[in-house]
Design goal:
Helix content: 25-40%
CATH class: Alpha Beta
Radius of gyration: 15 Å
Number of strands: 6
Structural class: alpha+beta
Largest sheet: 6 strands, mixed
Strand order of the largest sheet: 2-1-6-5-4-3
Order of helices and strands: HHEEHEEEEH
CATH architecture: Roll
Distance between the termini: 43 Å
Length: 142
């Protein structure tokens, strides 16, 4: 795998921005007409299952799902081909109340010729993740 592949470079920049809570840096990685599907399909995060389309919708996605939480992505394997990179990994999110959500999934990043993200797609099971949520520490019976 080529670590300098454009989609690999943008993937790493995306993860770094999320880990550091660098919203404007993260948003700048996207093309104007980009789409974020996280997770792919219908879920409470995207009831219609159409994705968050355009930078304004992606900003709302950040404000709703990333900003109030602590998000860490750990990648086990990555592959790059064409204008895309696919990553197998785990996202661990500590919610505002201290609950922990862990999801295993496949994360796809597609860039355009300018090296900007046109698509970020996360394949993971929302229902499974919610069923396995870890309650905040020290709260019995949660």
């Amino acid at each position: 795998m080529n670590d300098e592949h454009p989609a690999m470079v943008v993937s790493r920049r995306s993860w770094s921005a999320v880990h550091r809570k660098a919203k404007e840096e993260w948003i700048a990685l996207f093309a104007e007409d980009a789409v974020v599907e996280d997770p792919v399909g219908s879920s409470p995060l995207d009831p219609e299952g159409l994705g968050h389309r355009g930078k304004e919708a992606i900003k709302v996605f950040w404000d709703t799902n990333i900003a109030p939480n602590s998000v860490k992505l750990e990648i086990q394997k990555s592959y790059a081909a064409g204008q895309e990179a696919a990553h197998m990994g785990t996202i661990t999110t500590v919610l505002g109340d201290g609950s922990i959500v862990t999801v295993e999934g496949i994360f796809l990043y597609k860039v355009n010729k300018e090296g900007l993200l046109v698509s970020l797609r996360a394949f993971w099971d929302f229902e499974k993740a919610m069923a396995n949520i870890t309650p905040p520490s020290g709260i019995a019976g949660s």
